[in-house]
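Reopening: structure tokens for the calcium ion complex, inputs below.
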Amino acid sequence: MNKFFRGLVLGFLVVGSSSCIIDEENSSTQPAVHAEWSKVFEYTPAPGQFINEKTIGGFDGTEVTLELAVAYAEKRLTNYLDVSLGGFGGYIVVGFDHNVFNFPGYDFSVRGNAFDGSSEPAVVWVMKDENENGQPDDTWYELAGSESGKAETIQNYAVTYYRPSAPKAAVKWTDNQGNSGEIGYIEAYHGQDYYYPAWIQEDSYTLTGTCLQARNYNDGVNWINPCYDWGYADNFSPTDFVAKGKNNKFDISNAIDAGGESVELDYVNFVKVQCAVNAQSGHLGELSTEVSGFKDLNFE
Ligand SMILES: [Ca+2]
Ligand SMILES: [Ca+2]
Ligand SMILES: [Ca+2]
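Re-run output (same inputs, fresh job):
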């Protein structure tokens, strides 16, 4: 898109925004336009040490339905507090109150809590509201990153998590590659009874997504979770990470379809962030992406 058109579109957004204030005074129903996310549509984390956790995790024990879990996530994000996605495959879906346009360069950012040695990468997916019903019921496109296309990157990786039969126990899992393991229970740090989401009614559930090869290791003193080059959330990337605000920046032009082919999208309306590593770092527990904000960069 050329600069002139970009100016026109942004001009429209700004005018739309300011006229809204006037319209609101006149009791118009014209919606405001905000740079940041406007709604959480789904919050389905994998099991993890912060799930159902009442202190750092901020749960209060009432999150027993999908709707109440979404309300929890919205409250956390409104206050720029971390929402944990748990282990591999856990995800959150948010929407914007306007089209997030694909202009040259980066288009939107996802805020996490990465720092040097603590990257918990998530794959970011985008969706355009093609049927214009305001719901994320269209097609998800993965945003390619530095690990896309590598032999060790597994697409359609699926992990099934099993509800523990008793409190204060690890959560067992199996994957579609013939492996099994568990999300460890770490009572010393996170003593809630269950790391399995309280609002998931089924006794097991399966999460499917793109899996990156784990890079975590113990250097003899600490567990290190190294960064990946680019294209992931909650990642201390040398390319797309902005230390101030701990944001990773994303370009809609990196969208690919299920076959890995590039897809041209002029704008998107929904963003899904999904934890992309299945690994444990000893006493630190499972690698689990945190997110705390989503922003359209075209407003800056
Ligand atoms: Ca772009
Ligand atoms: Ca739709
Ligand atoms: Ca993190």
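Residues 1-28 have pLDDT under 50 and may be disordered. The pocket of calcium ion (ligand 1) is lined by residues 102-105, 107, 251-253 (CB under 6 Å). Marking as resolved unless the reporter disagrees.
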